[in-house]
Structure formats: C-alpha cells, structure tokens
Design brief:
Length: 380
C-alpha cells in the first residue's frame, strides 16, 4: 500500500527600497509565496533596529500567497536592517530588508577680521552622507549693515564648496545664516564676519594770543578690538599764517593720544585737518584754532615798525618813557646850570631847591658846555 504525504510550506522575502533622504519614508515590500499549494495564513511581524521608526505591516496576515508593505523612517543617515518574520502554525520564515537613508551636512568658515569696508570671504562646505547625490540649494540671511554678494555657486550636488563675500562700513560682528535645502532636508550654518575700525577726535576749538602757542590733544579710539598702527598727519592749514610742529607721537597702536602745538603770527581763525591712516582706513577730524590780538592786561603795540608781544606791552611802554626822559635830561640840566653858574667853578655846581639867585652880570669865561654866556647870578 502506498501512502502519499503532502508537505506544504511558504517563503518570505523583503525588498530593499530605493535610498531615501533622512526623515523621509522608505517602503519595503514583503512577499509570501505558497509552496505546494500552501493555503495557510501567515502572520507577519518585524524586528526594528535602533534609529529606525516603522509603521505597521499592511496587511499583517497573508493567506497562501500575497504581498504586504512596511514603511520606515530614520532621522540619521545610515543603513538599517529590518527583519520581517512570517509565521503559520509551526512554520516560520524570516527575511531581511536593508533600508538606506541619506543626508548632508553644511558648515561655513568665519573669515579673519578685516578693516571696515573691506570684503571678507566665507567658505561653505556641503558633505553628503551615505552616498547622498542630490542637489542642495544654498541661501543666506544677511543682517542689517552687512552687504553680501550672491553665494557662488548657488547649488551643490552631493558634496562640494561655495563661497560668500560680505563687507560692512561699520565696525562690528555680523552673523550670516546660510541654509542648504534638498527637500525635505534643510540644514543651516552660521558664519561670523568681523570688521574693525578706529575713530579720531581732537580737543577743539582752541585759542591763543598772537605769537603764543596752543597745544591740542588728538585721541585715537579702537573700535571692535582694533589693534593696528594708525599714522597721524596734519594738513590743509587754512588760511596761511599758522605754524604747527610735528604730531607727537606720529603713530599710535590701537588706542592712544598724541599732541600738536601751533602758533600764529596773524590774528584770525584757522582750521587744520588731522588725518589718521591705517591700511585702507582713513579718518579726518578738524582742529579749530583762534589767534586773537592780545591777552588780559595788554595789547599789541608797534614801536618803530617792530611788533611787540601783548604780554610785554607794559615793559615796552616803560622803555618809551625811559627813552623820552633820557632825551630830555641834557636840556633840563643845561638850563638849570646856566641859572646857577659860579665863575670860580670848573664844573656845574650842585643845585639846591632853596638857592636864592638874582641876575648880576654876564661873564665871557663861561664853559663851552653851557653854550652862550648868560647873565651871572650871585647870592644877594
């Protein structure tokens, strides 16, 4: 007698889906195939690895032969192995699906500090992960007071670099946000653009008397940690007639103070342009200086065409008086000597305020220094 035994079974397979971008869904198709007229019901379950999130298998059972699907996502690029098991009574078969997720990251460099007004360039780098080969569109968000050119190039496929050049005329730190997008992926990076500068000021206005001297303080102030050398110069003295010495010191590093002294030989209002230069930076300030005709207690005088300083006016007046008196003394002495002459004396007598005189006679023997012989007086 012959006994026939029918053995039935089934197989389970799972497809490897097309690579998907991180946070997108990847779907695997599960196929149950009946063997030898298998007609049983196969229940499908899965084992999900860490980092992968999967929805339910649909449908969760298959009778005989059929297919089901399962969709999964992953936030991080990588390859994830999903094990699917079909069970029917004592029969159990498993299959593995590999789900591939891709992504990219984006970074940018922060350029070195530059002078205000100069361009600085940031390099943007896009790196694809797990064979990422899609196009990434690059855009930027630029803050106020910073001017940027277009990102070049504006898109990168897979991996690559781009550049962004920006400048600001104001010292400061400026943050640019750069975003790379490859739907549904979007990643951002930040580049900081730093520019520094300096300011120059002077104590103004100043005043001095004619031929006097005035000293002004010039201050250089660092902006945004500026630490470069600043060269100081003076120019454009308007109108002519003001004499200025050298600026001391003529070079300042970062922040510091210098001085300049000026004097004028003509009364008036003067302007002097003071310039600070460092690299491509150049800033000006104006010194206002008034030269007036004198100081308290005196004025400018002129004797025989020679100008005298106002502070010496009193001395000059005193000298004029002395000169005038000195010129008059011989005349005064001559007149008094004639009135008190004694023929017996070879030199003029000392004169007393109580000498009483009266005219007596004239003498031909009077000295020559008395000039014409006058009438001679004697005490009565």
């Amino acid at each position: 007698m012959t006994v026939s035994v029918q053995i039935v079974d089934f197989t389970t397979t799972a497809s490897n889906p097309t690579p998907a971008k991180a946070n997108s869904q990847a779907t695997s198709t599960i196929t149950v195939t009946a063997l030898n007229h298998f007609t049983g019901t196969v229940s499908l379950t899965d084992t999900v690895p860490t980092g992968l999130t999967c929805g339910p298998i649909t449908p969760s059972t298959i009778t005989g032969t059929g297919t089901a699907t399962v969709s999964c996502t992953a936030a991080t690029a990588g390859n994830y192995s999903l094990t699917v098991t079909g069970t029917s009574s004592l029969l159990a078969h498993s299959a593995t699906a590999v789900l591939m997720f891709q992504d990219f990251n984006i970074t940018s460099s922060s350029p070195s500090t530059v002078y205000a007004g100069e361009p600085a360039t940031s390099t943007i780098t896009v790196v694809g992960h797990n064979h990422f080969a899609s196009a990434v569109i690059l855009t930027d968000t630029v803050p106020t007071s910073l001017t940027c050119n277009a990102i070049t190039p504006t898109s990168i496929t897979g991996s690559g670099t781009a550049t962004l050049s920006c400048r600001s005329t104001l010292a400061g730190n400026y943050t640019v946000t750069i975003t790379g997008t490859s739907n549904p992926l979007s990643h951002s990076t930040v580049a900081t653009f730093q520019s520094w500068d300096f300011a120059i000021t002077v104590t103004s206005p100043l005043a001095t008397s004619l031929y006097g001297s005035a000293t002004a303080n010039i201050t250089v102030t660092s902006l945004n940690h500026f630490n470069q050398l600043v060269s100081l110069t003076a120019s454009n003295i308007t109108p002519p007639g003001l004499n200025c010495g050298d600026i001391l010191p003529s070079i300042i590093a970062g922040t510091g103070t210098a001085t300049i002294s000026c004097s004028g030989d003509t009364v008036g209002n003067y302007t002097i342009t003071l310039t600070g230069t460092s690299g491509t930076l150049s800033h000006n300030t104006t010194l206002l200086l008034t030269v007036h005709s004198g100081s308290v207690g005196g004025t400018v005088v002129q004797i025989d065409g020679i100008k005298l300083l106002s502070q010496y006016t009193k001395i000059a007046a005193f000298l004029v008086i002395i000169i005038t008196i000195g010129s008059a003394i011989p005349l005064i002495w001559n007149r008094r000597a004639r009135r008190h002459y004694n023929p017996s004396l070879s030199q003029p007598p000392l004169l007393g305020r109580n000498a009483g005189l009266r005219l007596s006679r004239r003498s031909p023997n009077m000295p020559a220094w008395l000039g014409r012989a006058p009438d001679i007086c004697h005490r009565g």
